[in-house]
């Protein structure tokens, strides 16, 4: 029928490109991951229900011939053919995961079952974006992967914490029971460009407040700590974990061990923005962890990974992003 081209020209180019699915791919971390995977020469299927993510986050990738965007909720089954899966679908900011807590648990648990079922059928390797929240309000500091955590099963954060813990359980049971090729990373607080201005997490809140000259909202006395990783470092760690072929399945902590109080963070944001916003104090949310710092010995040993972007440099890049986004 098409003599000039021959049959082969009508067929898809079955190059040896890996097909990688990223659930939650239109979110903050997911969109950076999709970009990175395309830059690595892979085919990317981005799956998202746009609950906290947005088409806008991946709009610049749409013309890329190796990129595809699918609106889908991972709590429902999905039948596609892929070689690798990064499972990031789940709201991550306390404000958003507590908006519809039942849906949050469903996303982590039913989402994990469906994606693990897909991985089992297609023999795809699958990586779970787990979280430092599996350690809860930790009694061990800094937190190594061997620590089992201190988590309230019935509090306002439980939909997220216990959902993610159950997802880890499912990953390890599919690994032992069905030989699914899993990888599990526990992500510690990560921030950077493309966070939503109303995301609700502390770094974006403080920057937006400072740039708009409104009050900086410190919850509690501001002496609770977090350790902030810049997005590029996090993506590098996640990709290294997926690509390791030494049967190292994790869980592995990925985060920046430099620890700061929320007061220190607020003052750093004020200094870097030159803002004269006031610090105001608001009640500490229930079950808010008092301290958090990753022990990254395992990531360094097994993946040769450690973060390279210190807090100030990461904040500067994030502030530059929000300056372009917010009306003056
Ligand atoms: P995000 O809210 O920007 O991204 C989550 C994405 O998942 C969004 O695009 C959202 O629309 C999508 N999503 C939510 N429910 C879905 C569903 N049922 N079906 C399909 N898509 C759904 O948050 P993020 O910071 O990019 O987090 C990405 C992942 O990393 C999450 O799993 C989160 O738990 C994990 N994580 C992030 C951090 C961090 O500090 N950024 C820390 C620990 C863990
Ligand atoms: N599943 C999916 N896509 C697939 C294969 C499975 O969404 O390609 C879902 C399916 O809905 C199932 C779940 O994954 O409920 C778990 O699959 P598994 O094979 O482990 O369990 P079973 O189908 O036996 O319940
Ligand atoms: N926080 C704050 N002001 C804000 C938002 C958050 O002081 O406007 C605090 C919050 O109580 C917590 C820390 O900052 O102690 C980190 O909060 P975030 O929501 O970013 O992440 P998580 O608590 O999940 O680590």
Describe the structure.
With 328 residues, this protein is an alpha/beta fold. 36% of the residues lie in helices and 16% in strands. It has nine helices and 13 strands. The chain has helices spanning 28-39, 94-97, 101-122, 158-178, 202-212, 231-243, 262-273, 297-303, 311-325, and strands spanning 19-23, 43-48, 67-71, 84-87, 125-131, 182-187, 190-191, 216-219, 225-227, 229-230, 252-254, 259-261, 279-282. The strands form four sheets. Strands 3-2-1-4-5-6-11 form a seven-stranded parallel β-sheet, with helices on both faces. Helix 4 (158-178) links the parallel strand 5 and strand 6 (182-187). Helix 1 crosses helix 6 (231-243), helix 3 (101-122) runs parallel beside helix 4 (158-178) and helix 5 runs parallel beside helix 7. The longest helix has 22 residues, at 101-122. The structure holds nicotinamide-adenine-dinucleotide and uridine-5'-diphosphate (2 copies).
């Amino acid at each position: 029928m098409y003599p000039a081209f021959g049959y082969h020209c009508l067929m898809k180019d079955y190059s040896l490109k890996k097909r990688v699915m990223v659930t939650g791919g239109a979110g903050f971390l997911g969109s950076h991951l999709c970009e990175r995977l395309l830059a690595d020469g892979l085919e990317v299927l981005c799956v998202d229900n746009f609950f906290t993510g947005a088409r806008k986050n991946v709009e610049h990738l749409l013309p890329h011939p190796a990129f595809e965007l699918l609106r889908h909720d991972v709590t429902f089954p999905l039948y596609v053919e892929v070689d690798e899966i990064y499972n990031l679908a789940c709201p991550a900011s306390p404000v958003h995961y507590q908006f519809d807590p039942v849906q949050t648990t469903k996303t982590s648990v039913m989402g994990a079952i469906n994606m693990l079922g897909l991985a089992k059928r297609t023999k795809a390797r699958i990586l779970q974006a787990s979280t430092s929240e599996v350690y809860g309000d930790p009694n061990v500091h800094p937190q190594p992967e061997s620590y089992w955590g201190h988590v309230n099963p019935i509090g306002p954060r439980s939909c997220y914490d216990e959902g993610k813990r159950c997802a880890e359980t499912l990953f390890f049971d599919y690994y032992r029971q069905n030989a699914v090729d899993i990888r599990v990373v526990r992500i510690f607080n990560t921030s950077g460009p493309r966070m939503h201005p109303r995301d609700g997490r502390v770094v974006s809140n403080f920057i937006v407040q400072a740039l708009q000259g409104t009050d900086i909202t410190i919850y509690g006395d501001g002496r609770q700590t977090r350790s902030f990783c810049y997005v590029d470092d996090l993506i590098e760690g996640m990709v290294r974990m997926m690509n390791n072929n030494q049967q190292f399945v994790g869980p592995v902590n990925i985060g920046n061990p430099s620890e700061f109080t929320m007061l220190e963070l607020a003052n750093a944001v004020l200094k870097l923005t030159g803002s004269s916003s006031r610090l105001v104090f608001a009640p500490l949310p229930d079950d808010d962890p008092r301290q958090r710092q990753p022990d990254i010995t395992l990531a360094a040993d097994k993946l040769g990974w450690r973060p390279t972007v210190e807090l100030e440099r990461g904040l500067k890049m994030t502030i530059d992003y929000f300056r372009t986004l917010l009306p003056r």
